[in-house]
Write a structure and sequence with these properties.
This protein has 23 helices and no strands. By secondary structure, the protein is mainly alpha-helical. The relative contact order is 0.18.
């Protein structure tokens, strides 16, 4: 009975969004009500704790809405200035094939954004960029989510590893480095195939013939890009530790992938697949007077500022403290806290890039103000969905604060899984990480929540602790593909609010496949060890 109550945080959203196809603003509202009622009457949470958790969820939703607004306003501004047309022409000069473009934009450029920012920012940036390039909005949202997986363990300058494992007894710089090496080694068997998987999704769900036959000719090139990314990630993790893996690997991949695509290396001779174009899209063949560097400059500003505010200690200290809207110990409940450092938020950086773009590109300022008005309208429904989603997440997370002396719901689920699948935990570990990310929406929070349990299970079963923890983080990264608030964000920025269930149905299989491949990879590594 208690296990079913704990699992309601997973079962209810699955029923309402995936099976009944409700929009998230309705489905997650009903899911939140169910969980809150069960938390009060069955789990024994008091009203004050539940109320504080709901307020924390509302506050965290605002932090995400700022990122969504920033991503949309940047793209809308660049559409008004004409920069998007120039970016489109730049991609067509490399390759007009949409199968190539998804790898360059969603996987490699997304990995760069992930490495610098994390926290769901890549899908919010690459999704609308792909729509601007002519992609079907559903294809853009789905692929942006699936592509943002392999880089996630090293997102936001290594946060899921460095922060996610910080509450373990062995936490130290050498320990983090070792885990990073194991993550990248396992990802040789899993992350390597992400470029091909997103091409399969593109052709199977969004091509005219709805077949994977159009994906097979891309296997040699996508495999080369995948192994280049994961292989270089292993090298960088071994040399430098977890902080810069995603950033350096994505830059390595972008340079090589763009060059090989331009000369047609390992690509089919007739590489010009464009079957996923949205219906009303018209390619602008008029040569833009704007230089490619000028068109891309706002995104370069975004990457530069993200790195500056996260790597340079003095700058990081300033942006974390200058404008702080964090809410500590909400309603006096210790531990129920939501952080919101405005200048540190990727949303603020995206808005700044949008403002500065009109000056760099020498366009009237009204391009930004018009874009801002359009963007506010775009996020209204997302706000309702996020308020409900984050309320559910925070009540679920804080359910350990109860009067019945019960474990928190996440810990209860983890213990039940451990008791049932202990002997084969190597294959279950990534799915626990994925489960945590699906509910909480964060690979870091999933790892903070479940890494002590994974550590304990590894000790009791005699499994390699480093491999089990690596699988936890890889699984949490896979959970990014299906977690509700990421899906809400991705659907909002491409103009598909209300289609969250349709997106999850397409991302669910890749998410499961990624964890299966990770488990197989870990098993092979264990054989060699």
């Amino acid at each position: 009975m208690l296990l079913l109550v704990a699992l309601s945080a997973i079962i209810a959203p699955f029923i309402f969004l995936v099976l009944l196809r409700m929009p998230a603003k309705k489905g997650m509202f009903f899911s939140a009500i169910i969980l809150i009622v069960l938390a009060y009457f069955v789990w024994g949470m008091d009203g004050l704790t539940i109320t504080a958790s709901i307020l924390e969820g509302f506050h965290k939703a605002l932090t995400i809405l700022l990122i969504l607004f920033g991503a949309i306003v940047l793209l809308n501004t660049l559409q008004h200035t004409g920069a998007v047309d120039r970016i489109n022409q730049g991609f067509r000069s490399i390759s007009a094939d949409m199968r190539v473009q998804v790898v360059l934009v969603a996987f490699l450029f997304g990995a760069l954004i992930e490495g610098a920012a994390g926290f769901g920012t890549p899908a919010a940036v690459t999704g609308p960029l792909m729509v601007a390039l002519g992609f079907n909005p559903m294809a853009a949202a789905t692929i942006a989510l699936v592509a943002d997986s392999a880089p996630v363990p090293f997102g936001a300058v290594g946060t899921p590893v460095v922060v996610g494992l910080s509450n373990l007894p062995d936490a130290s710089i050498p320990f983090f480095k070792t885990i990073g090496v194991y993550i990248t080694a396992i990802d040789l068997f899993a992350g390597t195939f992400i470029p091909f998987i997103i091409v399969v999704i593109l052709t199977k769900f969004f091509g005219e013939n709805k077949t994977i036959k159009d994906a097979w000719p891309m296997l040699p090139w996508t495999f080369m890009v995948g192994i280049l990314y994961t292989g270089s990630a292993l090298l960088y993790a071994w040399l430098f530790g977890p902080e810069f893996v995603a950033i350096l690997s994505s830059l390595t991949g972008l340079i090589v992938a763009a060059w090989t695509a331009k000369i047609g290396f390992l690509l089919p001779k007739d590489a010009n697949w464009q079957e996923a174009l949205k219906e009303d899209f018209q390619i602008n063949d008029e040569k833009s007077k704007m230089s490619l560097l000028t068109a891309w400059s706002p995104y370069l500003v975004v990457v530069g500022l993200l790195l500056l505010t996260r790597i340079v200690p003095s700058v990081k200290t300033f942006v974390l403290s200058a404008i702080d809207f964090s809410w500590q110990n909400i309603l006096g409940k210790e531990g129920i806290t939501s952080n919101w450092e405005i200048l540190y938020s990727p949303g603020t950086i995206l808005i700044f890039a949008a403002i500065i773009s009109v000056f760099i590109q020498r366009k009237p300022f009204k391009n930004f103000t018009t874009a801002a008005k359009e963007s506010i309208v775009s996020i209204q429904d997302a706000a309702l969905a996020l308020f409900a989603t984050l309320s559910l997440v925070q009540v679920f997370t804080h359910s350990g604060m109860n009067m019945n002396d019960l474990l928190s719901m996440p810990q209860y689920i983890a213990n039940a899984l451990a008791n049932s699948f202990g002997p084969m935990w190597l294959f279950v570990a990534p799915f626990l990480g994925e489960l945590g990310a699906f509910i909480t929406g964060s690979a870091t929070v999933s790892t903070l929540t479940f890494s002590p349990i994974q550590y304990s299970i590894a000790q009791s079963t005699g499994a390699n602790i480093h491999i089990i923890l690596a699988l936890q983080i890889i699984g949490a990264a896979a959970g990014n593909m299906i977690c509700v608030h990421n899906v809400v964000a991705a659907s909002t920025v491409v103009g598909l609010t209300g289609k969250e269930g349709d997106i999850i149905r397409k991302t669910l299989i890749p998410a499961i496949l990624y964890c299966l491949l990770a488990g197989i990879g870990a098993y092979i590594i264990m054989l060699f060890l």
